[in-house]
Structure formats: C-alpha cells, structure tokens
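lol ok so funny story. i was supposed to be doing the assay writeup but got distracted and ended up predicting the structure for this chain instead. priorities right. anyway since i did it might as well share w the group, maybe its usefull for someone
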Amino acid sequence: MTTWSTETISKIASTDDLHIYPFRADGKTYGTPTWIWSVVVDGRLFVRAYNGINGRWYNSALAQKAGRINAAGQTFDVAFESADPTLTADIDAAYETKYAGSPYLPPMVSARTQAATVEITPR
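and the output, tada:
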C-alpha cells in the first residue's frame, strides 16, 4: 500500500475541500466530482458516504478501486478500499474533532455511514 507524504497528508487534513471522483463502470471515465468530508487518522485518509452503502460514489469507488480526488488545491490519482473496521472509533473521533458543532456530524458517525467508510491511498 502506498502512503501519503507527511506534508501532503497534513495539508489535506487541514482543509475541508475534498472532492472525490471514482472511475465509472468503464474504468476509464472519471465520475462527477462529489464534495465530501474527510479525516486523517495516523497519517491515513478516510471518507464516509453520507448515504451509506447505497451511495453512488461509494459503490463506484469500491467497484472500480481507483479514481481521483482534489484536495488541498491539488489533484491526486488514488486507490479506494473499505476501511479497516477496527479503526471505526478512531475515525469517529476524528470526525467529531474536525466537524464539531456541525448539524451534519451525527449522521457521519452513525452505523449507516460507518459501514461506508473508505480509505484513500495515492496511486
């Protein structure tokens, strides 16, 4: 597994501008960019689908395993994998810290979205 550089992951962690676009079914065409919340845990990048496992981008990401993100003013070719479920509590804590006070926070730490957690790594 390829990892993020310390400088890059720090920049991504400090922003709230991540757009994700997994490949479409053809494996070549990028999907429509979707703005989503992201968090970093132990230098690793995670996102969750607000609509849970039925989310369009989520299903594309797991089916195609690759795509692109825009974050911290840069574009990255990336790989997508289901997150390790043993990290759920740590990922929840990162969401609670980064997005404290947002009315959208409770759904992002619910069982529905926990089941749709994706780790993003550079390709």
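The chain has five helices and seven strands. Helices lie at 6-13, 56-64, 88-98, 105-108, 111-114.
back to the writeup now i swear
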